[in-house]
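so my prof wants the structure for this chain in the tokens format not the other one, which i didnt know existed until like an hour ago. anyway here's the sequence
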Amino acid sequence: MFKTKPVLRRILSVGLCAAIGLGVATAGQVVSAPKAAAASYYDTKIKHGVNLRVSASASSGVIRMIGADESVHVVGQANAYWLHVFDQKGNSGYISSSSEYTNYAAGGSGGAAPSSGGGAKADQVVSIAQSYMGRVSYDYGTRNPSKLIFDCSAFTQFVFAKVGVSLKWGTKSQKTAGSYVSKGNLAKGDLVFFDTIGSNNGVINHVGIYMGGGQVIHDTPSVDGLQISSVTSGFWSTHYVTARRVL
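here's what i got, hopefully its the right format
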């Protein structure tokens, strides 16, 4: 990424924000936080009330009781006994993996099975990225971890560094990192690239992280922070360019 004077950087940021924001508005896509995301995102049903705990231990603190018939999103299995989940209130925590409590089945249709692409590390990447929902701000050409202010590629670089994967800053570099993966073979943890300005002519200027289930999490000026979007329908689907696997 290049450095710019503050005034010019603000102009560039506003211009990019307007371009992406206009595209989203034109496509009629609803901007939402995780707890307001599409219902299909919360794909595992609670069969009997279960405690949502702070860590994968029966002795850890209880965040809340998740009642029967509520739905959660399973990020992955912490171990044979615990699932890492997000509830519809936006809480991240752990619940028992016993079939007594949910219809989750790793590899089956009852929930979000771990990816065959990046495996456990991919689950970590997605979990880490989601943990910054509502905390990160967007600023074009900025990489400021201490204040959680990033542009799109600075955020992906920040997240992957936490699992030991080194990425260069900038979509120009990240679009050639790792190996190519087709849209039909996307797996959790893949980098997904977009052309957000004007018609999609394949000029990459935006990047996000694939979460599985047709969803991508990305730092975007249209919401001044993190957003979860679909890559199977709507604006981001039509502006998809390519993907890279770096795990």
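also thought this was worth mentioning. Residues 6-35+116-245 form a domain with the endopeptidase fold (from Nostoc punctiforme) fold (CATH 3.90.1720.10).
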